[in-house]
Each structure stands twice: as structure tokens, then as C-alpha cells.
Specification:
mainly alpha, Arc Repressor Mutant, subunit A, 2 domains, globular
């Protein structure tokens, strides 16, 4: 929407000054997108809500550090991703797949027929991945970070992130094939 960036600039300035209405408006406008980010990284709704709440606290605490209000969505998304990583590191519910082997080039057919599934089904499949695999999958596939960036964020090697992504893709492929088989059986009256 034209002028939307300008509105963010004014809104951010008001939020920094402690204007409660501006803070509520920022929250109302960006919460759906940011909650979606939290759900991509969380194992369940409760974890997503915890990450979401701590992310908003951090945003209002650090908003004065935002140098360019035009980039607020990107800045906020980064905060929520970091909160998710910290949440799972704190709870120590993550175990990495530490195989560091060369992965052969994977073709683009690794997650075909995805368009046949509802968004909620795909989200659930991703949420069911083991924690570190889910984190790496989201950071690489959804957020577009490189393996080098992910390795630095998670304090592991690039080989480990590549291995986790490979394993996540294989798990998702298997689950999607099973869902397709079930759907095919239902459509054929089996």
C-alpha cells in the first residue's frame, strides 16, 4: 500500500515514545505475520505462544535500536526467529543429527505435489519434524538463510545444517507420500 512505509516510520517513533495506542496498532498490524513465523518454528501452539510473547517483549524493549523503520518486518522476523532458537536451546529439547557427510545434489522434486495440501497440513508436517531439523528447514527453505548463516546462528558446522536439512526433506517426502497414498485410497473408495 502506498505510503505504508511512512506510516511505519511515524508509528515506530510513537512506539519508542511509549504511546500505548501506537504500540497496540503495531501489534495489531504485524501480529498475524509474526505469529505465523512462531508457528513455523514451534513444536506446538503453547511453544509458539511463548515464543510470540517473548518476541514482542524484546521488540518493544529494543525498538529504539531499529535504524530503518522501512525494514521493521524483516527486523521483527529476525527477532522472532532468534527467540525460537533461544527457546529451544533453553529447554534443551534439541538434539542435532550430527552426521557430516557430503550430500549429493538434491533435485527439485524433493517435495512435489505440495500444492495439493492445505497450508495447515504442511505446517503440521513441518511442526512434527525433530526440533533442530525443523529449525534448519525453516531457516533455509522458508527464510532463505544460507547454510553458513544457519551454522553461525545455531553454533554448529555447515555440514551439520546440510545433514539436518537433508534428513528433514527425506522425512517430509515420506510423510507426503503416505498422505498422497491415503488420499488416493479414499478417492478410489478403498
Amino acid at each position: 500500500m502506498p505510503g505504508h512505509e511512512h506510516n511505519y516510520k511515524r508509528l515506530v517513533k510513537k512506539c519508542i515514545k511509549g504511546d500505548a495506542k501506537a504500540q497496540k496498532m503495531l501489534y495489531d498490524v504485524l501480529s498475524p505475520k509474526m505469529l505465523s513465523v512462531c508457528f513455523r518454528y514451534a513444536r506446538n501452539k503453547t511453544d509458539a505462544e511463548d515464543i510470540f510473547q517473548s518476541g514482542w517483549l524484546k521488540i518493544f524493549e529494543k525498538l529504539h535500536q531499529l535504524k530503518n523503520a522501512d525494514l521493521i518486518e524483516w527486523w521483527m522476523k529476525k527477532i522472532f526467529v532468534n527467540e525460537a532458537l533461544q527457546f529451544y536451546n533453553k529447554t534443551k529439547r534439541i538434539s542435532f543429527t550430527s552426521d557430516e557427510y557430503m550430500l549429493e545434489q538434491e533435485n527439485n522434486s524433493d517435495i512435489r505435489i505440495i500444492h495439493d495440501f492445505h497450508h495447515d497440513q504442511i505446517t503440521k508436517l513441518i511442526q512434527d519434524l525433530p526440533n533442530k531439523m525443523r529449525m534448519v528447514f525453516n531457516l533455509y527453505i522458508i527464510e532463505g538463510f544460507s547454510h553458513k548463516e544457519i551454522a553461525e546462528m545455531m553454533n554448529v558446522t555447515e555440514g551439520t545444517t546440510k545433514s539436518n536439512l537433508h534428513d528433514a526433506r527425506k522425512i517430509l517426502q515420506k510423510k507426503i507420500r503416505l498422505l498422497n497414498a491415503e488420499a488416493f485410497q479414499k478417492s478410489n473408495g478403498a
